[in-house]
Amino acid sequence: MSERPAFYITTPIYYPSSNLHIGHAYTTVAADTMTRYKRMRGYDCYFLTGSDEHGQKIQRAAAKAGKTPKEFVDEIVASFKDLWAMLDIDYDHFVRTTDDYHVKYCQDLFQKIYDQGDIYKSEYEGWYCTSCETFFTETQVGSEHVCPDCGQKVERAKEESYFFRMSKYADRWLKFIEENPDFIRPESRRNEMVNFVKSGLEDLCVSRTTFDWGIPVPFDDKHVIYVWFDALINYISALKRFDNDDLYDKFWGAPCTHLVGKDIIRFHTVIWPIMLMAAGLPLPKNVLGHGWVLLGDGGKMSKSKGNVVDPRVLVKKYIVDAIRYFLMKEMAYGQDATYSEESLAMRINTDLANDYGNLLSRATGMIAKFQDSVVLAPGEPTEFDEELIALAKETPENFGRLMDEMKWQDALNELWKLVNKANKYIDDAAPWKLNKAGETAKLSSVLYNMVEVVRFVTVMISPVMPSTPEKVWQQLGISDRKDLHTWESLTWGAYPIGNKIDRGEPLFPRIDIDALDDMPIAGSEPKATAEPEKPACEPVADSITIDDFAKVDIRVVKVLECTKVPKADRLLEFKIEMAGEEFTVLSGIAQWYKPEELVGKKLLWCANLAPRKIRGIESRGMLMSVVQGDDLAVVEAPDLPTGSKLC
Ligand code: MSP
Fold this sequence. Notes:
Layout: E1 6-14, H1 22-40, E2 44-51, H2 56-64, H3 69-86, E3 93-96, H4 100-115, E4 119-129, E5 134-136, H5 138-141, E6 155-164, H6 170-179, E7 184-185, H7 187-198, E8 204-205, E9 207-208, E10 216-217, E11 220-225, H8 227-232, H9 234-237, H10 246-251, E12 256-261, H11 265-279, E13 286-290, E14 293-295, H12 311-317, H13 320-330, E15 337-339, H14 341-371, H15 385-404, H16 408-429, H17 431-436, H18 440-461, H19 468-476, H20 546-550, E16 554-564, E17 572-578, E18 581-587, E19 602-606, E20 612-614, E21 617-619, E22 622-623, E23 625-628, E24 631-634
Parallel strand pairs: 1-2, 1-12, 2-3, 7-13, 12-13, 14-15
Antiparallel strand pairs: 4-5, 4-6, 6-8, 9-11, 10-11, 16-17, 16-19, 17-18, 19-22, 20-21, 23-24
Helix pairs in contact: 2-3, 6-7, 14-16, 14-18, 15-16, 15-18, 16-18, 18-19
Residues 12-15, 23-24, 26-27, 52, 231-232, 234, 260-261, 263-264, 292-293, 301 line the site of 5'-O-[(L-methionyl)-sulphamoyl]adenosine (MSP).
């Protein structure tokens, strides 16, 4: 085994219930970038991703597609792997929760925790959101019986279940977080979780009996293990998949980072560490909860809005490295980011074509023209050299620190300070004037500095854009000089004197933003590996009489104001107007809409649903939405006066 320090990085394992979108691509590109960066810094880094294949949601999706769950997931998992290959994602292992080693390890761990008395049998009675695969209490779902996380209808569950004694570990968890403040990042999410645990931790229902697509409880095969209990274990089962414990010993004890979206932070920072505490296993080093990729023009991606951004289509239109760069640059640490094709194209034109690509092109172009393609030894410095060289020398340290902190946007901003400085340096030093004036000593310095900055930037950008460096090395004439592509080579002046450059094509052709829709898509449309989803609908409910129906009073209302409820990812607070009167109503639809896009709209509102308090705000009635699978859309009313009644 090598002596290099170990580092372990994971993405969540994705549900193979539908194809992945650009939001999922964000986490995986981030993990891949981090892995490549850590390797460049001398770490032996292990990168794990995979698929979370059990549970009611998958079982239903498979039934809808007329397939067995295993047939169904096999096809979708193949499409995941294709996507990761397209995005240049170089994982070490793809774990599937249906893999034998995972099933066995998961059962062993369940048994161990049961044997020591931390899992016990009881009866679960409450609510279940199949879309989130999460249990909720009466208070959490409220009188409308909707999931506080995704806003979809929850289902009543009453069944014999095994429970995990989470409550017993609350104090130990709080102490752990106090001693390891960096465990949950960013800090805002840590505070949320601490408040959550302090408000009282309940035991967790960890088995189900009403469906069978899951890992059987080892000592009671009427039960399958709760899908989240099963899924979280992947981070260890994947390392334990061989007969020996080499991988586990090396990577589970190492600094480890789970990259997850903010919606699943509770599972990773509360349930998972407590499972590990109960099992007597070490905890990971930290969990980073990143924000969501939202849509510039329509909030969260959803199939009903037809606005899901399919990375497979993007990679046929844009250079993969440019998509990766965009994702890493656009999202601030822990915050949401907005995606639109225009913003992607603009980012390509500005940062990549105008700034970085142009820097290379100017450097190679002028060396070809003024020095017959040969990079000469720097002669006499110009008055602008010192500042540029000083910035180049300090950038690796600043960039590296921010990369280590996983603040990718800040790291790239730091790097682009150097790119921009170099372009400004060329304008100031004006090599074309030096050439004209015959000041060859200064000219050779300027041209050398330009090449050396391009080399510095290219080494640092390589984890984000893994295919671009090779093109740059060719143009700089150092393809074979692997020693000049490394982090250690970032000492100013390493570029070989007398070397010949080989000017090539622009790295990033400019995109015509006005003609985005007409842009050619390379090759034919990718063949969907998964069957297109058939439209499904819930079974029609039992008959009611006209009198029953008349009890529900649904009116046209106008949205006057709409804001996000602080600290509630899913909730929007509406001020609505009906026949001159104003009401406040909350709705759990923040993941599908941005507040501003609903203001001024006329919607349908159930006026006589009893008011209820949510997060201290009294909510009157209920706004009508339609749901289909993971998609939701509010019901827009015809343009009639507010107060008009649905009949
Ligand atoms: N299967 C669970 C994870 C189990 S890990 C032990 C799951 N799967 S998922 O496919 O629904 O989501 C996986 C990840 O994708 C989550 O981290 C989620 O936050 C992330 N994203 C889903 N939509 C996203 C965006 N629009 N933007 C960024 N990340 C998003 O949850």
